[in-house]
Specification:
This protein is about 40% helix and about 30% strand. The longest helix is centred in the first third of the chain and has 13 residues. It is an alpha/beta fold. Pfam families: Usp. It comes from Natrinema versiforme. This is Universal stress protein.
């Protein structure tokens, strides 16, 4: 089996673009094992004597509809698909999961951002590309 990690956010268009790339990878669909990963980003907010943490809101089983749509698409194409939901920094969780389950490749759909936008808000895609110890396929297609 050829194991592929596909990080999926809430944007359905980018999620479907990543799924399309997976279906275009060489080899029979039956030999592709796809792991869909959704990361609930960690945060903490405090004020007026109380604080709220992302831990308080995190539900391991609450996948966004984008994950279900991609799961259905890839299963219909004949691939084995599993889902995972993690909590924390998205780039760190993607890299840790890739190592933990020993995937052959990571397939991501990024979004176009200006250099200023990357500097101000960061880029999960860029962090994964720089930190990965295995091949990463990134598409910037708009669906």
């Amino acid at each position: 089996m050829y194991r592929i990690l596909v990080p999926i956010g809430e944007n359905e268009q980018r999620a479907q673009t990543a799924a399309d790339i997976v279906t275009e990878l060489p080899g029979p669909a039956a030999e592709k094992e796809v792991v869909l990963l959704n990361v609930f980003e960690g945060f903490e907010v405090s004020g007026e004597g109380r604080s709220i943490s992302s831990e308080d809101l995190y539900d391991k089983s609450a996948f966004p509809s984008s994950v279900t749509a991609v799961e259905d698409h890839l299963e219909a194409a004949g691939m084995s698909v599993t889902k995972r939901r993690e909590h924390g920094d998205p780039a760190d969780q993607i890299l840790a999961t890739a190592t933990e389950i020993d995937v052959e490749t990571i397939v991501m759909s990024g979004r176009k951002r200006s250099p200023t936008g990357k500097a101000l808000f960061g880029s999960v895609t860029q962090s994964v590309l720089l930190g990965a110890d295995r091949p990463v396929t990134v598409t910037m297609r708009e669906g």
